[in-house]
Write a structure and sequence with these properties.
Strand order of the largest sheet: 3-6-9-12-14-15
Structural class: alpha/beta
Strand content: 15-25%
Helix content: 25-40%
Radius of gyration: 15 Å
Shape: globular
Number of helices: 4
Length: 168
Amino acid sequence: MFGRTIYDIKSILQRDPAARNAIEVALLYPGFHAVLFHRFAHMLYKCGLRFIPRLISQLTRFFTKIEIHPGATIGKGLFIDHGNGVIIGETTIIGDNVTLYQGVTLGGTGKEQGKRHPTIGNNVMISAGAKVLGSFTVGENSKIGAGSVVLSEVPPNCTVVGVPGRIV
Protein backbone atom coordinates (compact mmCIF):
# COMPACT_ATOMS: atom_id res chain seq x y z
CA MET A 1 0.00 0.00 0.00
CA PHE A 2 2.91 2.36 0.75
CA GLY A 3 4.38 1.84 -2.73
CA ARG A 4 1.05 2.67 -4.37
CA THR A 5 0.76 5.82 -2.24
CA ILE A 6 4.20 7.00 -3.40
CA TYR A 7 3.17 6.24 -7.01
CA ASP A 8 -0.03 8.29 -6.53
CA ILE A 9 1.94 11.28 -5.21
CA LYS A 10 4.43 11.08 -8.10
CA SER A 11 1.62 10.89 -10.66
CA ILE A 12 0.00 14.02 -9.21
CA LEU A 13 3.33 15.84 -9.34
CA GLN A 14 3.69 14.87 -13.02
CA ARG A 15 0.15 15.96 -14.04
CA ASP A 16 -0.45 19.07 -11.93
CA PRO A 17 1.74 22.06 -12.80
CA ALA A 18 0.66 23.75 -9.53
CA ALA A 19 2.02 20.92 -7.35
CA ARG A 20 5.41 21.96 -6.01
CA ASN A 21 6.50 18.97 -3.94
CA ALA A 22 5.41 15.66 -2.41
CA ILE A 23 4.78 17.12 1.04
CA GLU A 24 2.39 19.68 -0.41
CA VAL A 25 0.48 16.94 -2.25
CA ALA A 26 0.35 14.67 0.81
CA LEU A 27 -0.89 17.41 3.13
CA LEU A 28 -3.00 19.71 0.96
CA TYR A 29 -4.65 17.73 -1.85
CA PRO A 30 -8.17 16.52 -0.96
CA GLY A 31 -8.25 14.27 -4.04
CA PHE A 32 -5.20 12.46 -2.74
CA HIS A 33 -6.77 12.14 0.73
CA ALA A 34 -10.01 10.75 -0.73
CA VAL A 35 -8.11 8.09 -2.70
CA LEU A 36 -5.93 7.21 0.30
CA PHE A 37 -8.93 6.67 2.59
CA HIS A 38 -10.75 4.82 -0.20
CA ARG A 39 -7.92 2.31 -0.47
CA PHE A 40 -8.27 1.49 3.23
CA ALA A 41 -12.09 1.33 3.06
CA HIS A 42 -11.93 -0.83 -0.10
CA MET A 43 -9.61 -3.31 1.64
CA LEU A 44 -12.16 -3.68 4.48
CA TYR A 45 -15.02 -3.88 1.96
CA LYS A 46 -13.30 -6.75 0.14
CA CYS A 47 -13.05 -8.57 3.51
CA GLY A 48 -16.84 -8.60 3.68
CA LEU A 49 -17.31 -5.68 6.04
CA ARG A 50 -19.90 -3.13 4.95
CA PHE A 51 -20.68 -0.63 7.71
CA ILE A 52 -17.13 0.49 8.64
CA PRO A 53 -16.07 1.06 4.98
CA ARG A 54 -19.24 3.06 4.31
CA LEU A 55 -18.61 5.10 7.45
CA ILE A 56 -15.06 5.83 6.29
CA SER A 57 -16.45 6.79 2.88
CA GLN A 58 -19.00 9.19 4.37
CA LEU A 59 -16.49 10.79 6.74
CA THR A 60 -14.10 11.24 3.82
CA ARG A 61 -16.91 12.82 1.79
CA PHE A 62 -17.64 15.23 4.65
CA PHE A 63 -14.03 16.42 4.78
CA THR A 64 -13.08 16.32 1.07
CA LYS A 65 -16.45 16.75 -0.76
CA ILE A 66 -15.44 13.69 -2.81
CA GLU A 67 -17.62 10.59 -2.57
CA ILE A 68 -16.06 7.25 -3.49
CA HIS A 69 -18.07 4.15 -2.69
CA PRO A 70 -15.85 1.59 -0.93
CA GLY A 71 -16.87 -1.03 -3.49
CA ALA A 72 -15.33 0.92 -6.39
CA THR A 73 -12.10 -0.50 -7.82
CA ILE A 74 -9.40 2.10 -8.44
CA GLY A 75 -6.06 1.56 -10.18
CA LYS A 76 -2.83 3.34 -9.36
CA GLY A 77 -2.19 6.99 -10.11
CA LEU A 78 -5.77 8.34 -9.91
CA PHE A 79 -5.59 12.15 -9.78
CA ILE A 80 -8.73 13.97 -8.66
CA ASP A 81 -7.97 17.64 -9.34
CA HIS A 82 -10.16 20.27 -7.63
CA GLY A 83 -12.30 17.32 -6.59
CA ASN A 84 -15.30 19.07 -5.06
CA GLY A 85 -18.47 17.20 -6.08
CA VAL A 86 -16.80 14.11 -7.57
CA ILE A 87 -18.94 10.97 -7.18
CA ILE A 88 -17.70 7.44 -7.93
CA GLY A 89 -20.29 4.66 -7.72
CA GLU A 90 -20.03 1.21 -6.17
CA THR A 91 -19.36 -0.92 -9.26
CA THR A 92 -17.09 1.60 -10.99
CA ILE A 93 -13.73 0.30 -12.18
CA ILE A 94 -11.02 2.91 -12.81
CA GLY A 95 -7.77 2.02 -14.58
CA ASP A 96 -4.31 3.45 -14.01
CA ASN A 97 -3.28 7.10 -14.40
CA VAL A 98 -6.81 8.50 -14.73
CA THR A 99 -7.50 12.21 -14.17
CA LEU A 100 -10.88 13.44 -12.90
CA TYR A 101 -11.77 17.11 -12.47
CA GLN A 102 -14.36 18.74 -10.20
CA GLY A 103 -17.98 17.71 -10.46
CA VAL A 104 -17.39 14.43 -12.34
CA THR A 105 -19.95 11.69 -11.74
CA LEU A 106 -19.19 8.06 -12.53
CA GLY A 107 -22.64 6.72 -11.82
CA GLY A 108 -25.52 4.54 -12.88
CA THR A 109 -28.77 5.37 -14.64
CA GLY A 110 -30.89 3.67 -12.00
CA LYS A 111 -32.05 1.04 -14.48
CA GLU A 112 -29.41 -1.67 -14.10
CA GLN A 113 -28.85 -4.50 -11.66
CA GLY A 114 -25.39 -5.84 -10.78
CA LYS A 115 -22.60 -3.93 -12.61
CA ARG A 116 -24.26 -0.56 -13.10
CA HIS A 117 -21.39 1.94 -13.20
CA PRO A 118 -18.76 2.61 -15.87
CA THR A 119 -15.37 1.05 -16.41
CA ILE A 120 -12.72 3.69 -17.12
CA GLY A 121 -9.63 2.60 -19.05
CA ASN A 122 -6.03 3.62 -18.40
CA ASN A 123 -4.85 7.19 -19.06
CA VAL A 124 -8.36 8.65 -19.40
CA MET A 125 -9.12 12.30 -18.62
CA ILE A 126 -12.64 13.30 -17.59
CA SER A 127 -13.14 17.06 -17.48
CA ALA A 128 -15.13 19.24 -15.08
CA GLY A 129 -18.81 18.50 -14.67
CA ALA A 130 -18.88 15.48 -16.97
CA LYS A 131 -21.35 12.70 -16.20
CA VAL A 132 -20.49 9.15 -17.25
CA LEU A 133 -23.60 7.09 -16.53
CA GLY A 134 -24.15 3.37 -17.05
CA SER A 135 -22.35 0.07 -17.30
CA PHE A 136 -20.02 0.45 -20.27
CA THR A 137 -16.33 1.09 -20.95
CA VAL A 138 -14.50 4.32 -21.67
CA GLY A 139 -11.49 3.15 -23.68
CA GLU A 140 -7.86 3.85 -22.87
CA ASN A 141 -6.37 7.27 -23.64
CA SER A 142 -9.81 8.83 -24.20
CA LYS A 143 -10.89 12.30 -23.12
CA ILE A 144 -14.34 13.39 -21.98
CA GLY A 145 -15.04 17.11 -22.41
CA ALA A 146 -16.34 19.41 -19.69
CA GLY A 147 -20.07 19.16 -19.08
CA SER A 148 -20.51 16.13 -21.33
CA VAL A 149 -23.07 13.45 -20.56
CA VAL A 150 -21.79 10.06 -21.73
CA LEU A 151 -24.35 7.25 -21.88
CA SER A 152 -22.65 4.71 -24.15
CA GLU A 153 -19.36 2.98 -24.93
CA VAL A 154 -16.33 5.13 -25.82
CA PRO A 155 -13.64 3.47 -27.98
CA PRO A 156 -9.95 3.90 -27.07
CA ASN A 157 -8.14 7.10 -28.13
CA CYS A 158 -11.31 9.19 -28.61
CA THR A 159 -12.54 12.57 -27.47
CA VAL A 160 -16.19 12.88 -26.44
CA VAL A 161 -18.07 16.17 -26.03
CA GLY A 162 -21.64 17.36 -25.72
CA VAL A 163 -25.02 16.33 -24.35
CA PRO A 164 -25.47 13.55 -25.16
CA GLY A 165 -21.77 12.80 -25.59
CA ARG A 166 -20.57 12.25 -29.15
CA ILE A 167 -17.13 11.39 -30.52
CA VAL A 168 -15.33 14.24 -32.27
